[in-house]
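Protocol step 4 of 6: structure prediction from sequence.
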Amino acid sequence: MNPFSHALDRATGARPIPGNLVRHIAISSDALDAMLEMIMSAERTVHFENYIIHHDATGKRFAAAWADRARAGVRVRILYDAFGCRGTSRAYWRALRSAGVDVRPFRPIWTSGPIAALSRDHRKLLVVDGEKAMTGGLCIGDEWAGNLADGRACWRDTMLAVCGPAVAALEAAFVRMWARAGRALPEDETTAAPEECGPSAVRVVEGFPGQSRIYRAVQLLAAAVTERLWITDAYLVAPPPLFAAFVDAARSGVDVRLLLPGTTDIPIVRTFTRGGYRELLHAGARIFEYRGPMVHAKTLVGDHEWARVGSSNLNVSSLLGNYELDLVAEHDGLTATLAKQFLHDMGQSREIVLMARRRLPLPPRLIAAAAGQDPPPPQHKRSLRDRRAVAAVALMQVAGGARRMLAGAAASALLVVGVLLILFPLVTSTALAIAALATSMWLAGFAMARRRRRRESDVA
């Protein structure tokens, strides 16, 4: 094993598991059908973990499949994130429990404490009988299913179907998260690792708050690649060190391409993402915005060797704060498959390019001075009107620079506040409310003191 593979082992906390068969599913509706088929084939256990499970037509299809298997004697366990499923009715969960399904919420918002409630279970995982698994970025809802009869295309997402020894690592990841939400599973339910069924070696990377495993892995890959770095991401607001790694890779000649949503369910995140476009484009990166429905996939292709698919978005919340789950493959056919899919998605996207800004022309005297040349001799004496025009142009240049500086400072401040509201909504909103209350009290006190001084001066 080469030194870079050792470095990736340490960064991810995971070693390659050989002998797997990994199947790539790029159409969300097909992935949902594959998951339902896998659930209905269960004979012993169904372990399901997801960030979002909607109480819509798609959610009801899954509920019916889970309930059917539970009534047949299969041990069905559902772990859902309490924040991601905040819109799902309690009746949905009660119906599942009444059918014999073991359902657990991960960290209910009002009982988990202000700090713990910020770290969410963002994983997407299905394991059946300890022998088959699916993981990736797909949640359970009509957005991912689409409806061709109504002209609604499904969201663009990516899932992987896995068989082989890596399934045991994926089930172990579920077992650890299940224990975080309540009583641990009985030890006698532990199953042996499945036999080898394919040629793929994959790392199962578990993301935990504060450990930044996939963060370090992506940063390592960005620093090591020499040919290409192709990334698809749903909510890219990369931390500064990771953003700098993308910029540096592009400047060094690496083919850096980012495929991002043109349509998004969180417009403010797209605004933050677009704020970094100019620097990336100046560095030589290429950026594409998908013209179809929402792109929810989280994938990476590094050179012709590395591939990554999972639940982690390249933003602070996923990389540092949440529980995530990713698969990283090395020297595998998955790399070529993801590269082919990326090119297909590129063909359905619009490329973002730099456009020259229109600026008011400077007077010839200022242009010559900026170039270090002697100004040309005046051919005639300028009239008062000419001098006023030159002064107006110069004033507009100065005012424009000041305006851009103030706008930049204001935008930066709003950006910081917006990011804090997204990452830490409860803490930030509370802090803003306290700050507003303190400011209003200070202003009221200042006004009262000033009024008192005026009265005393009138009396004197």
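Step 5 (inspection) to follow. The first helix runs from residue 3 to 12.
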